[in-house]
Structures are given as structure tokens and as C-alpha cells.
Amino acid sequence: MKKKSCRNRKRVLIKIYLVLISLFIVSLMFVYKAIDTNATNYENKAVFTKNDTKHSNNNSNLIVCIDPGHGGYDNGTKSSSGILEKDITLNVALEVGKILEENGIKVIYTRTSDSVQWPSNEKLDLRERVKISNDAKADIFVSIHCNGDKNASYKGVETWCRFPNSQGENLAKNIQKELTNANYTTDRGLKYESNRSLAVLKLNNSVSALVELGFLSNSSDAKFITSKVGQAQCSEALAKAILNYALTFEK
After folding, report:
1. Domain region containing 19
2. Which of 106, 154, 172, 235 has its CA 20 to 30 A from that of 50?
3. At 177, which CATH number?
4. pTM for this one?
């Protein structure tokens, strides 16, 4: 009886050891998966860090001019809740500039607050924005806007450049792609000078594009682009687009 009892105890102990070993292996698998996930997340965010040598090594001499549309006397369009285009564009522009600077790019702005340094004249306004870019010898110019229309069903993001098969179109394609990938609205595609001439593009010496983030007159678009989360996502998408384009840019 004692021998049988000892055998039973041994069997129980073996089972316990096997269970403990299995639990240990499973625990190791969870730890490895967590480490691997964190590493992947870090790699995905690397485009927005100072240590992203992939971008910064190529962009040390690059100058980007960011133009927050409207400002000062000019409110731009507004949402049904009264949020102004000029405030949204400024928030997004400053965040885009911050990300670009973290990646080694020199950034200038046409404005960094709600005040503007030119008189209340639309024609002079546009020329002054271009002058800031041209005087700084900017390589890339991006003007940020929000759309509006009497028809509240209109929605979507669109990016403007001057001509097809140009560097401006390449920049615009990158911008349109990244904002569309954010998946917050519809893709209205690229627009060209043949659709409408825009002074900030036509008079600019740099590779230029103008983006309309969405329609403030549309409830769905407005909800996103007036929110902090929405503006942050738009900023990251724009910065990523400029950085991606910059990899192909040669002075």
C-alpha cells in the first residue's frame, strides 16, 4: 500500500510540474508578444521623432513654409457651432511645424497667432503670404484651409496644386493620400489651376500645395476637424506627407 501511495504522489507531483512548466511557457509567450508589440508601435511612431534619421539626414537644409489660412480680420468659413476656420488652420499648422522641426526641417510660418501683419485686403493678404515664403527661399509651401458650402451634404478632403505631372502634384498626392488614409471623410481628389487659379500657388517660387481638410458646413466633417483628436490626426497626416515627399526632393 505504501508503494502504491508513493507512486500516486509521484504522479501528482509530475502533473503539477507539467502544469507549472506550461504556465511558465505561456507567460513567456505573453511577455514576448508585449515586447514585440511595443517595438512595432515605436517603429510606427518613429516618423514623428527627433531620432528618425531616415528623414532628418535627408532634410537638414530643407525649408518648409506652413501657411495657416485666413487669420486676423479674415475668419474664413465657420461651423454651425461657430468654430472659425482661421482657428482650426492655425492649430493644425503649428502642430505640423512642430513635427517637422523634430525631424530636422527648418519651418517658417506666414502667421503664428490670430494677428496678421498686413492690411485688411484680400489681394494684399495673399501676396504677403507668398512674399514670406519667397523671401525665406522656402523649398516647400503648404497652405492649410477648411471648406464650406451652402449645400451641407458636401464633404471630403481635397488638395490643390498648379499642374499635372509636376513636383507640386507629387506633393499634393502625398498630402491627399495621408489625409485620405486617416479615413475621417471622403476623398475629393486633386484639384488643379485649370479648376481654379489660386494666388498662393501661382505666385510662389517653391513647390506648393493647398489643402482643404474638410467642410465645416458638413456636420460629419465639422465634428472631426473641430475636435482636438481630429486636428491631431490631420496634423500627423500632413507632417507625414511632407516628410515622405521630402525624401524625393532635391534642391
Report:
1. 1-48
2. 172
3. 3.40.630.40
4. 0.78
